[in-house]
Amino acid sequence: MSTDRSLARCSFCGKRSPEVKHMVAGPGAAYICDVCLGLCLEILHDPAPFSPRALELASRPPVVIAAPQELPAPSITGAKREPLRAIIIELEQKQQDRTMMLRELQLYQEHFELHYLWIRPPFRAGFAFVPRIIFQVSDNLGNLWAGDRGGMVLARPELSNGPHLAVYQGYARFSPLPPLETRRLTIRAADPLGQFEQPPLLPWQFEITV
Ligand SMILES: [Zn+2]
Question: Which of 3, 98, 100, 111 could bond to 204 as cystine, CB 3.0-4.6 Å?
């Protein structure tokens, strides 16, 4: 497949060739600009496992590459961040040394979000993995949501009460919205790394009424 190089955009920040000093071409339509390359080098030299910069880079919305410039911006970036309705949940479950706190369900025009705090022992340095929680949501009508791209998780060291616990604040996105007839949501949340624990962690499970 050929790629129109005149549409080159940095796959990490979306900037076009004329907007940057240098652009390094990768296979197909993949590119990286000098600024993003510099940021990657800084992250490589940072001993912290999840520096805010690494998390920021990993949680950027995907860049549409080699596509017409007229393409409408994805709704993730264009949507305003005020929910139409917010339901405070404040449910907390502890399992071994990890805690999941579901804080809020936010309903937007075309998607909904689950906002949470994830408290666990800190990841060891050199961990080449972006921490994440996998969610599965179902309702009393049998609808099932597995999550969309565009959620995010951020380290919140200022919320931790000591070096033995790390706090991450995040949200997961889902679409479409639950139908109006939905009365109850069952939310299951899994820490994929929990599979390596002895015994393995089970998914957390929460029931909320909407
Ligand atoms: Zn870039």
Answer: 100
What residue ranges do the domains of the chain occupy? 7-71, 78-209
Report yes or no: 136 and 188 within 8 Å, Cβ to Cβ: yes
**Per this entry, what is the length of the chain?**
210
Distance CA 113, CA 88 (A): 12
The enclosing H or E element of 191 equals none
Question: Separation of 210 CA from ligand 1 center, angstroms?
Answer: 41
Report the separation in Å between the CA atom of 123 and the middle of ligand 1, taken as the mean of its atom positions. 28
The token pair at 133 is: 């929680």
Q: From first to last of its 210 residues, what are the pLDDT tens digits of the chain? A: 444 556 678 888 888 888 889 988 887 778 899 999 999 998 888 887 778 888 888 877 776 544 433 434 444 444 457 899 999 998 999 888 899 999 999 999 999 999 999 998 887 766 656 678 999 999 999 999 998 887 888 878 778 877 888 888 899 999 999 999 999 999 999 988 888 888 899 999 999 998
Burial 30-45 (b: 16+ CB within 10 A, else e): bbbbebbbebeeebee
* 3-state secondary structure at position 206: strand
The set of residues, in sequence order, having a beta carbon less than 8 Å from that of 201 and lying 6+ positions away, is 95, 96, 98, 190, 191, 194, 195
How many A from CA of 12 to the centre of ligand 1?
5
Q: Which CATH number describes the domain made up of 78-209?
A: 2.60.40
Q: Under a CB-based contact definition with an 8 Å cutoff, are residues 134 and 189 in contact?
A: yes
